[in-house]
């Protein structure tokens, strides 16, 4: 069996998923396509490097594939689904975005109303070794549709079917997982900036060296992540909504969204330092 | 030279500071006193165990000492200072509480208006090995009054004079330090509770085992800290105010305060489990 797959849109992580499809057992390389119209030169370069076939627009793409993989910034997830659903795409729509279960439900409704089948996914880990979590469909467990699609992916992707948590389990897992990793990075930035503003930056580093020895290095290595802050603000919003919907405080990630929004100007910056991150947080100037 | 010291009030950490004074070079044991009137049997037992002399009330205490050490829940810091200032205490008032620089400034104003001298302090680390940070006074550095008072403390206390950050540097340092330690514990509780509510608790643990291997153990060992949550809510408020005053988001610690407030019922609980903490967060029932 051959499954043709369309990837919308191969950013860094989308390209990693596409590579996994190209190396996966049941897929012939020519059957992984993307829609290049209007995408950035960087996206085109990545797509060409791994050998994806450009079919132009999403509207053409859906006529060629059985499976669409949506991998885009969280705020584009619903719009991407709407564009596909408008074509009456009848295949499987795998949303692998960092969105709340509520947003995933909205995407699912759009996809289903258009005649497609929704599959909830989420990616944890970097592009070098991503784990693609897939929610088991109602049919159940890894024996269902999710299991069939998991088998399409080869290295570097590890696809995992979640046996619990319902139809939006992958989105839920992504939210609570990234709520820690990206939430604590934002918190670390905010506290280091506050220390700087209050004149105790060096004292804090000295105390960390004694009693939290991993933190100075974590702060230093996190600075580079400031480059990705522009697309983390809305992910933090999705996490805040997820916690609120679960009856828990949303303040942590409202704060994290604010931190990342202030750092959005670091997109494509060539050299990001801790000092630059803290200055941008405090004064809007890097 | 002998300096008589009064400790208000020797809870667990106050008792540790008092022990440091009793073991410190310039202090004769009989010269460390406390005010036992109306305090709990547990506080009395701790004070008697380390050999503090009970002089009854704060009003009597201040007539006997040159230095008052205030170590109490954050929300009692200003009231404790007011009670001492009302006596026209003319000695040094060391506030070692977990309060924002703004609250510390309020305490300083109360103390100074009453005729005393304010010294800003804060404790980092547990009662077994606390570091007492002291803000350098305007006279500057470890050669000033802060240095003299630092020398009063022996084991288990390590007293450190902060050369930078101004008259409320110790409070500032405590806020940004505890903003991480207690802030991340609250975040971990909130995310684990959300995972439970969303049905992905086991999937989150499995993902953590792979990619965040320290977290499962941290969650398990943090559960016991739920017992102290009753006095951490207001400390989180102080941290939130500190960040807001520094122009940074206060949401992280507003969320943390909410988490700890929900856990206040665990005070004096004999057996605190992760399951109990999460149930209390989600449903108000342990």
Percent of residues of chain A in beta strands? 5-15%
Question: Are there runs of chain A of 5+ residues with pLDDT below 50, and where?
Answer: none
Shape of chain A: globular
Greatest interface by residues involved? A-B, 59 and 59 residues
Write a structural description.
The structure is a homodimer of 286-residue chains. Chain A has helices spanning 12-23, 41-50, 58-64, 77-85, 101-113, 145-150, 169-197, 201-211, 215-222, 233-245, 251-262, 274-283, and strands at residues 5-8, 32-34, 53-54, 67-70, 92-95, 117-124, 131-135, 158-162. Chain A is 49% helix and 12% strand. In chain A, helix 4 (77-85) packs parallel to helix 5 (101-113). The first copy, chain A, is α/β, with parallel strands linked by helices. Chain A has an eight-stranded mixed beta sheet, sandwiched between helices. The first copy, chain A, folds into two domains: 5-164, Rossmann fold, CATH 3.40.50.720; 172-283, Orthogonal Bundle (N-(1-d-carboxylethyl)-l-norvaline Dehydrogenase, domain 2), CATH 1.10.1040. Chains A and B meet through helix 7, helix 8 and helix 11 of A and helix 7, helix 8 and helix 11 of B.
SSE map:
The structure is a homodimer of 286-residue chains.
Chain A lengths: L4 E4 L3 H12 L8 E3 L6 H10 L2 E2 L3 H7 L2 E4 L6 H9 L6 E4 L5 H13 L3 E8 L6 E5 L9 H6 L7 E5 L6 H29 L3 H11 L3 H8 L10 H13 L5 H12 L11 H10 L3
Parallel strand pairs in A: 1-2, 1-4, 2-3, 4-5, 5-6, 7-8
Antiparallel strand pairs in A: 6-7
Helix pairs in contact in A: 1-2, 4-5, 7-9, 7-10, 7-11, 7-12, 10-11
């Amino acid at each position: 069996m051959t499954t043709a797959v369309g990837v919308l849109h191969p950013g860094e992580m989308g390209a990693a998923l596409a590579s996994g499809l190209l190396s996966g057992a049941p897929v012939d390389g020519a059957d992984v396509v993307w829609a290049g119209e209007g995408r950035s030169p960087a996206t085109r370069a990545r797509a060409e490097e791994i050998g994806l076939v450009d079919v132009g627009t999403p509207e053409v793409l859906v006529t060629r594939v059985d499976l669409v993989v949506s991998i885009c910034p969280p705020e584009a997830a619903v719009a991407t689904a709407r564009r596909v659903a408008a074509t009456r795409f009848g295949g499987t729509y795998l949303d692998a975005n960092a969105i709340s279960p509520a947003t995933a439900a909205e995407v699912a409704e759009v996809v289903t109303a258009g005649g497609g089948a929704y599959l909830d996914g989420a990616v944890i880990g970097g592009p070098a070794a991503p784990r693609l979590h897939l929610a088991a469909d109602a049919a159940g467990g890894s024996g269902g549709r999710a299991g069939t699609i998991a088998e399409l992916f080869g290295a570097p992707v590890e696809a995992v079917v979640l046996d619990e948590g319902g139809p939006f389990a992958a989105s839920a897992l992504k939210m609570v997982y990234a709520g820690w990793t990206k939430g604590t990075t934002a918190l670390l930035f905010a506290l280091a900036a506050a220390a700087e503003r209050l004149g105790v930056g060096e004292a804090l580093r000295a105390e960390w060296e004694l009693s939290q020895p991993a933190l100075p290095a974590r702060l230093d290595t996190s600075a580079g992540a400031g480059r990705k802050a522009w697309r983390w603000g809305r992910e933090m919003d999705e996490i805040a909504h997820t916690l609120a919907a679960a009856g828990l405080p949303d303040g942590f990630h409202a704060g994290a969204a604010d931190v990342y929004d202030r750092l959005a100007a670091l997109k494509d910056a060539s050299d990001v330092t801790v000092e630059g991150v803290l200055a941008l947080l405090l004064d809007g100037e890097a």
